Amino acid sequence: MWLEIICGFIFYRFFRRFFYGSDDVSDIETSDFNAVFSVANRLEKLYGGNVYVGLRIPDADTGSRQNIDILLVTKGEAAVISVKNLAGFVSVNEDGSWTCDGGSTRAVCHPDPVSEAKEQASVLESYVEQRGLPVPEGCFSYKVVIPNPKFRTFYKKFPSEVITYDQWVQLKPEPKSMFSGWIKSAFRGGKKEMQESFQQQLNFILSTAPMWDRMELKDNKYVLGEFLDFKGKQEDILALGIIKRSKVSRLIIQKISMFGLAHSKVQVLYSTRDYRSSGASASEWKEVTVRPSTEVIFQPQNSTKVHKFKLSSVTSLSLSA
């Protein structure tokens, strides 16, 4: 009996590795990344505008970079959104930090999320001004969104900047005043709407700002981080040598045939990155055919470990400038 179990386990591991790619796909935790993209997609559907995910804004004071989960820019409003995918009972300490007790795991203390979001908005404002665009007072608001349905708390006095899960699921689109009730307050007190020209300049600056690379895996899983290289047969690596960050903005991985015996087709979008004008000046699609066993070498955000993902497990890859 034990022999049958062991043989079955070995067969399962072989089957999974052969058909679904490297073990890194199942090992890596994508829930936090998925939560960020889920929030971004819902905000875009509710309020429109431009949504920027995974910004890495240089902080001149510290010499480091501030990671911003989401920045939402609409007519008259801009909001830094920090997504906290917390599950379990959350309590707020005297210093503003949060303690999350997941029950089965030990309690984890998180720095004050509101202070962090406020600092991100401040760094972003300084960055935009350094890029030559004066920022009106109160232009950037900030919010902390908790989208996890397993979030629980006895705490009743969260700051107004915190959007708990119950509040998050109740948000509804409001065509005329899109953020009425939770972001619009940042623009009260006689502050005027951002002029259209300011919004256009802001969107251009943000579209050319440093960002994390984005990889989408099968089953709608996302990973933010840094694309490092490809690994595989020499002929495949040579074929993929045309993919350079300075020229390529996105790769689309087409479906492979049954049992993964055929080559994968990789469609590469070439974009000439011209920072003197808004948008790309030229683009074209080209196809490169390589083996499905070819691997993408990728280092996720906030991880010291480099992961390998087979192309057969990847849906798309977006590269920052």
TrEMBL record:
Q: Which residue numbers delimit the NERD domain?
A: 31-147
The name of this protein is: NERD domain-containing protein
